[in-house]
Amino acid sequence: MLKVGDRLPNGALYEFIEVEGEGCSLGPNAFDIAQSTAGRTVAIFGLPGAFTPTCSAQHVPGYVAAADDLKAAGVDEIWCVSVNDAFVMGAWGRAQGAAGKVRMMADGNGDFARAAGLELDLTARGLGKRLQRCSMLVVDGVVRALNVEAPGKFEVSDAQTLLAQARALPRG
Q: With a cut of 70, which residues of the chain have pLDDT below it?
């Protein structure tokens, strides 16, 4: 499993782009993880699925509400990652009011979840393989803080925990 001090796994995440610009076409666009985190501080939170109860009622809204505080603490971008396709993530982002605050990044095949060692098997519940609920602070592609939830829990991956970690991160 990914741990503090590790580089994020190589690969791509996908984002549904609604307005063409900055080299991005309309629709799903692939973003290389290493390139997208190079020289940046990124708050990433992962969760099992779009439009699911805890994810929609607590996890995403917490990060949307804390976006300005996270940016004031030195975070360049906030990513929500889930094993869903980019179309679903885009629709969920619209429903959550995430535009301009949280990038809704799709891990459609679960490649990131597997490579990070954070895959959660929910096949018994009809949900397939998912991303375990977690949050991390990534600086220049390296994990500087990591919070992984026990299955079915939402106690350590919330926005306020990651905000405290971002504020405590040495700068320079």
A: 19-26, 172
119: which residues sit within 8 A by CB, 6+ positions away? 110, 113, 129, 130, 131, 132
Catalytic site residue 24? no
Domain containing 21 — which CATH number? Answer: 3.40.30.10
Q: What is the pLDDT of residues 116-161, one digit of tens each?
A: 999 988 888 877 798 999 999 999 999 999 999 998 899 999 999 9
User: Which candidate in 24, 55, 80, 134 is catalytic?
Assistant: 55
Please give the distance of CA 75 from its chain centroid, rounded to a whole number.
13
Residue 47 inside a domain? The answer is yes
Structural domain boundaries enclosing 140: 12-168
Nearest CA to 53 out of 125, 107, 142, 115 is that of: 125
Tell me the C-alpha distance between 59 and 107, whole Å: 17
Contact call for residues 140 and 40 (beta carbons, < 8 A)? yes
Side chain identity at 141, as an amino acid letter? G
Cβ partners under 8 Å of residue 38, min gap 6: 140, 141
